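Appendix B, record 7
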Amino acid sequence: PGASSISGALRLTAALPTILGQFHRRRAHLPPLAPRPDLNHAGYLLYALLNREGTELETRALDVALILHADHELNASTFAARITASTLSDLYSAITSAIGTLKGPLHGGANEQVMKILDEIGTVDRVEAAVQAKLAKHERIMGFGHRVYKVEDPRATILREWSRQVGQAKGDLHYFDLLVRLQEVVHREKNLYPNVDLWSGSIYTLLGIPHDLFTPIFAVSRISGWTAHVLEEYEDLRLIRPKALYVGPTDLTYT
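Structure tokens (predicted):
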């Protein structure tokens, strides 16, 4: 990759927390913020979103979540970015492809859907009936199962502990208790394990982050992985062209 691509990757990684923070502040009718070089990546994002500095625990919790979401091999958005880069399109177009792919609710919106389910359930004693009702209607319960992991997603294991710590610090284990029970019931009924989306939303909610910013925060984290993949793709200089296998009818007669 050229120097311009590398510097562009650094600029994007640095700029996204500021872009998201200022977007949120504008819609909340809050004044823009000056840069705070004394705050780290997660610290500045919390400062912008909460209109105050995060505590050490809050900042570390978000920092851990960002680290755990930074990259995860050839997921849908990363693959989209690499395909775009393989055409020798520019870095910004490749990242735009990734963001458009992340927007899909089956990729980037799962943790927001988990929180909606928890709010619908309400209390721990209603988890069993809620799961049974969804399974009876063949509805998917977000936050469980993974294309790569057939056991518990190791990222989920880490985030569960951070959800507990943040909940205890704030005196609010409501979502933690709901999720523990939900995990028990879903595993018993479907033998499915948690993925990273099961626990991340509870942490963001406890931090006071609006639900509609969960996917943009995913992008703030994954931008480091996306750009690294794009730069690597530029070194290969081979057009990615997946092959399709036709499985429809053959030898048809046309009139």
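Remarks on this record: The mean pLDDT is 94. The domain at 110-206 is CATH 1.10.230.10 (Cytochrome p450-Terp; domain 2).
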